[in-house]
């Protein structure tokens, strides 16, 4: 029996896969986990500045109150909420539920919708957006 060589790769490259929402959200779950770690360092720096001196705290609040700081805080809020909601979906998957392809696509849309609504709600109620606050 002659041995033939197959020129196909053993593991396909990402370029041949059709990019779908569950695939993107899988990567986003990892990215938000990293963002939460980095954001935690920022949180510790903010708390440390409060302990260090009034000037350091005012400086840190000035940064966080600026456009870049607000953008970072909004991203951290999104990361926290997305990672939590997506984590709940993973816990549901661990029970063997919602694992069919259609259910995975539907739950991806639901996770994204819940994340967007809760992130905006947190910022509106928290006063992060103009006119917000309770």
Secondary-structure-derived class: mainly alpha
Mean pLDDT score: 90
Fourth-tier CATH superfamily name: Fumarate reductase/succinate dehydrogenase, transmembrane subunit
The CATH topology corresponds to 3 helical TM bundles of succinate and fumarate reductases
CATH architecture: Up-down Bundle
H/E topology pattern? HHHH
Main sheet record: none
Span of the ends, CA to CA? 78 Å
Number of strands: 0
Assess the beta-strand content as a share of residues. Answer: under 5%
Identify low-pLDDT runs: none
Q: Which range best describes the helical content: under 10%, 10-25%, 25-40%, 40-55%, 55-70% or over 70%?
A: over 70%
Q: What's the shape?
A: elongated
How many DSSP helices?
Answer: 4
Task: Provide the descriptors you would attach to this structure in a database record.
single chain, 134 residues, 3 helical TM bundles of succinate and fumarate reductases, 73% helix, elongated
Itemize the secondary structure elements and their pairings.
Layout: H1 21-52, H2 54-65, H3 67-94, H4 101-126
Helix pairs in contact: 1-2, 1-3, 2-3, 3-4
Describe this protein's structure:
This protein is mainly α. It has one domain: Fumarate reductase/succinate dehydrogenase, transmembrane subunit (3 helical TM bundles of succinate and fumarate reductases, Up-down Bundle), CATH 1.20.1300.10. The chain has four helices and no strands. The N and C termini lie far apart (78 Å).
């Amino acid at each position: 029996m002659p041995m033939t060589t197959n020129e196909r790769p053993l593991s396909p490259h990402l370029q041949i896969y059709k990019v779908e929402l569950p695939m993107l959200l899988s990567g986003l779950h990892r990215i938000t986990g990293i963002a939460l770690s980095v954001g935690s360092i920022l949180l510790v720096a903010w708390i440390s500045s409060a302990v260090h001196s009034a000037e350091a705290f005012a400086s840190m609040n000035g940064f966080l109150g600026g456009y870049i700081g607000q953008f970072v805080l909004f991203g951290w809020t999104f990361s926290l909420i997305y990672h939590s909601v997506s984590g709940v979906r993973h816990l549901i998957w661990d029970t063997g539920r919602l694992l069919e392809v259609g259910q995975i696509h539907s739950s991806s849309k639901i996770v994204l919708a819940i994340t967007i609504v809760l992130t905006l709600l947190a910022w509106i109620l928290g006063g992060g957006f103009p006119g917000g606050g309770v």
